[in-house]
Design a protein that fits this description.
The structure holds two protein chains of two kinds.
Chain A: E1 14-19, H1 23-33, E2 42-46, H2 55-60, E3 67-69, E4 81-84, E5 90-94, E6 98-102, H3 114-125, E7 129-133, H4 142-150, E8 154-158, H5 167-175, E9 180-182, H6 184-205
Parallel strand pairs in A: 1-2, 1-7, 2-4, 3-4, 7-8, 8-9
Antiparallel strand pairs in A: 5-6
Helix pairs in contact in A: 1-6, 3-4, 4-5
Chain B: H1 3-20, H2 29-43, H3 48-55, H4 59-70, H5 80-94, E1 100-105, H6 111-122, E2 129-135, H7 138-146, E3 148-150, H8 154-163, E4 174-176, E5 180-183, E6 191-195, E7 207-212, H9 221-234, E8 235-243, E9 258-262, E10 267-270
Parallel strand pairs in B: 1-2, 1-7, 2-6, 7-8
Antiparallel strand pairs in B: 3-5, 4-5, 8-10, 9-10
Helix pairs in contact in B: 1-3, 2-4
The chains are: A alpha/beta, B alpha/beta.
């Protein structure tokens, strides 16, 4: 990794979004707000009961103009695609970047676990990833968000007072006090801005 | 993860390979890192170098590490729809063979072995089947052979068994003790438990069916190709391969040698 290069949004390779109870509504709002030309891959992990195929794919498909699916093992991250973590597996970012799955023990009583996804993204993508924590009733994701921040990635947390369940964003803010604290609407703008920044600066570089 | 950890990781894998023959060098790095971090914590070492120093000299520590690097806890009839598809789409073909061989690589503690043995029994095929259940972890193989599972897991197993199209009640196949369920010995009579590595060993038999579910996800693409190559060489013409719900042959160099039989259940047929 070119650790000496400045942290520019141009190097943004993925936006990771984690949440639990009360997060589906925000994800739905977020995906609905994204333009069809939104390039950066988005990886969404929401704790859900195990269904196959995931109920979330059905619920969110049609809400956004981007391709939306559960990733397969070793599938490379593609632009303009929203990936939903499949229930029953941990989802990790591996070299490539590509996806890797595991059925290792639950972490924070969760599989998939946001910490597992965010830790692996921080490790592989470093400053090339951004992390968002949404509404939820358990502390999963706080350590992972801190790992992303420590690796130089941008981080945002839904304001606990704005979230349907405040425990998850509160835990995240306790470990990442400097994270941007935003309303659901603010999260939508934050993500859009990331990509707009990304697109204009990559065009400018060519 | 620290820079030192990233340097020490390949060195440790090389050392393990040279000393013990276990080859983790082509495992998917993201999961491997998590497992090694956990191993450092549980075994009480401050660095992979410190662990390596002991692993090289004490086989007992290698055994402890092996448990961290390999064991996956599976469930009986995980993804019931897979087993339903096996019954509906694959069993009719299997019936046409006078004798059957089945290979379950990476069988870990045997949940999939007993699931398949029960399915084959209910389809009247188990008596003419030989199941090879293989793994690299001797401790896991011993557990698999024992056929004993914690009682608190049985409710989930029973539910999945029913959803998988089970013809009876799962309780017909085990006796419950204090905290454990012991599965019927007769289910194991047709199973051969054995040491085999998809990373270093070769094909040992021609089989009609391989189920290898959520094992390849721990390998990188190169090792996946090696493993699928073994499957191709082992499965007879028109034989079957079942993978995990999120595994695909689409990215494999051997993709063209298989046909999708039940796409959504990842059941393939050898061309």
């Amino acid at each position: 990794m070119e650790s000496s290069s400045p942290i520019t949004p141009r190097s943004l390779q993925a936006i990771l979004v984690g949440g639990s109870a009360g997060a589906v509504e925000v994800v739905s709002l977020l995906l609905g707000a994204l333009p069809a030309e939104f390039a950066t891959p988005i990886v969404v992990l929401v704790h859900l009961p195990r269904h196959r195929p995931s109920a979330l794919v059905g619920a969110l498909r049609g809400k956004c103009g981007l391709a939306l699916r559960e990733p397969l093992d070793k599938e490379p991250l593609a632009p303009s695609t929203v990936y939903l973590a499949p229930p029953g597996y941990h989802l990790l970012i591996d070299q490539g970047p590509s996806f890797a799955l595991s059925v290792d023990e639950p972490v924070n009583f969760s599989r998939p676990s946001i910490d597992v996804l965010f830790d692996s993204a921080a490790d592989v993508l470093g400053p090339g990833c951004a992390g968002v924590i949404l509404s939820g009733a358990n502390p999963d994701g706080a350590h992972g968000l801190r790992a992303i921040q420590a690796a130089g990635g941008l981080v945002a947390v839904q304001d606990p007072d704005d979230a349907a369940q405040g425990a998850m964003p509160r835990a995240a803010l306790a470990l990442c006090p400097e994270a941007d604290r935003l309303s659901a609407k603010g999260i939508c703008q934050w993500v859009q801005q990331l990509s707009a920044w990304h697109n204009s600066s990559s065009r400018g570089a060519r | 993860m620290s820079e030192e950890f990233d340097i020490e990781l390949p060195l440790l894998l090389e050392a393990i390979h040279l000393k013990y023959g276990y080859d983790f060098r082509r495992y998917a790095i993201s999961s491997l890192k998590r497992r090694l971090e956990q191993a450092l914590q549980d075994l009480g070492y401050s660095s992979l170098s410190a662990l390596q120093e002991r692993v090289l000299r004490e086989p007992e520590i290698m055994r402890g590490l092996l448990a961290h690097l390999t064991v996956q806890v599976s469930e009986m009839f995980r993804d019931p729809s897979f087993y339903r598809a096996l019954r509906d789409k694959v069993v009719p073909y299997l019936r046409t063979y006078p004798s059957l061989k089945v290979w379950i690589p990476g069988c870990a503690t045997g949940e999939e072995v007993f699931s398949l043995a029960i399915l084959l029994r209910e389809e009247g095929l188990l008596d003419r089947t030989l199941i090879y259940a293989t793994d690299i972890n001797p401790e896991a193989l011993r557990k698999a052979e024992g056929g004993i599972y914690a009682l608190d897991r049985i409710a989930d197993f029973s539910k999945a068994y029913c959803e998988a199209g089970g013809r009876a009640s799962l309780s017909d196949y085990y006796t419950a003790g204090y905290n454990a369920a012991l599965f019927d010995k007769s289910l194991r009579e047709r199973v051969l438990f054995s040491d085999h590595s998809l990373a270093t060993d070769s094909v040992f038999a021609e089989v009609q069916l391989i189920t290898c579910r959520n094992v390849l996800i721990y390998f990188d693409r190169t090792l996946q190709d090696r493993a699928v190559g073994l499957f191709r060489d082992s499965i007879c013409r028109k034989g079957f391969l079942g993978l995990g719900a999120k595994e695909t042959l689409a990215l494999s160099t051997h993709a063209a040698e298989f046909e999708e039989l039940v796409r959504e259940e990842r059941i393939y047929q050898r061309r």
